[in-house]
Amino acid sequence: MTTSQTLVPCAQISGPIPETEGNRAVVLESYGTERMPSYGYIQEEYFVSGNAAEAPFLTRILVRRPEDMGKFNGRTLTEVSHIWGGTSVWRAYNRALMRDGYMWIEIDSQAPSALDLIQGGNPERYRDMVFTAGELASDFAGSIPFTENPSPEILAEQYDAFKERWWKATPQSFEIIAQVAHALRGGLPGIRNSEVKTLLFAGISQTGGVVRRFVEQHHDAMRRADGGPLFDGYLPGASGGEALPDIDVPVIEVLGEAEFQSVRWDCGVSGQVRGLSHRRADSETFRLYEIAGMAHRETRHMSQKDVLRLKDCPLPPGAHWSTFPNSHIYGALLGLLADWAEGKLVPPPSQLLETEGHTDTISRDQWGNALGGVRSTYTDAPTSTLVAATPMGRPSWYHGNETPFDGQRLQEIYGDIDSYRRVLARVIDRLMLQGFLHRVDAEELRLSAEELRF
After folding, report:
1. What range(s) does the Alpha/beta hydrolase domain occupy (predicted)?
2. How many domains does the chain have?
3. Segments forming the whole domain that contains residue 348
């Protein structure tokens, strides 16, 4: 251990916290929880406490795990709740997590959401929650800069200033994350077989930025008592920034096509890709996967809340919200990262979208779909034109849309339905061989293809 490294104490974990009919845990992201019983999963809540940034803290972690811990695979995926609510990783990964026996843990280390949305949602249950005072989630919600006709430089300046507010509002967050991670190695109080073998940290969008900053500034500096790393692997998604450094555990960075498009005036956000500055060479511990056709947030399986929120957003004639399977991609990459962290494989080389020269403008095929990057049946057995970031403002920009090909175009491309299905089968086989598609998700795609008519 070098002199610049700090031995991180373990947070104190207490619980699980009992629930009654009128006093239940606040759930920031209910999407996907309705399917937990069919996978044999339960939810529990614990309080965690300690000192961070020279001040006391008390917050909570939310745990979703197999009720029968004999089915726990030893792998735990952690995320922090978004600064203004939500758990984007659970939303994207929940099917893969539950079918493979992972434990999922929400670490509520960001004070704006913890105090405003969790404590505010049940003041009695969380009366002892303590953080350093600062801005709350309501101070941030809906306040992403949006200026008429800005240049990319203005968008970037505004968004960077906005992000600085995030970090100032969360001064204890990274130490809380580190202390909770250290404590989780020993398992959860009173839960047999809950010791963590492989601990992973993932984020999407704002929380992807949290993961990136942890990798950049805290992974090497904060260590366990034995000098080992706090996390065994990282999966930052849909965020972007300067190229990440090499560290001593695997990092898989994921960027969708939307993160390239969202920096345009059409969408009015410049928090993700800045040119190609995030790209770097592969190493023994780094891969970058840019996903053709993937939006910032999946609309393949929309909740009723999503349906109502997006019902008045304009779409191009003939288009509908995208059915692109973000969750298939994320689930496959989670498996690659976990296996890589455990020394079971080396993942495929980085896959980069094709761009025009050295710009971040994406090159496209004759149907308007992106070239290069991680491929899918949507790009290599196409039946529609994909738009990964629906233009003009919020809340539509972070969702994709697609315009289906008509029967004549499908016939021109494939000839007949049997030929289409043969092309689809070849693409699926290739993706499975590469590790970018799980077998169960492949079967879902095959079944969906049965519904296509020319």
Report:
1. 13-445
2. 2
3. 255-454
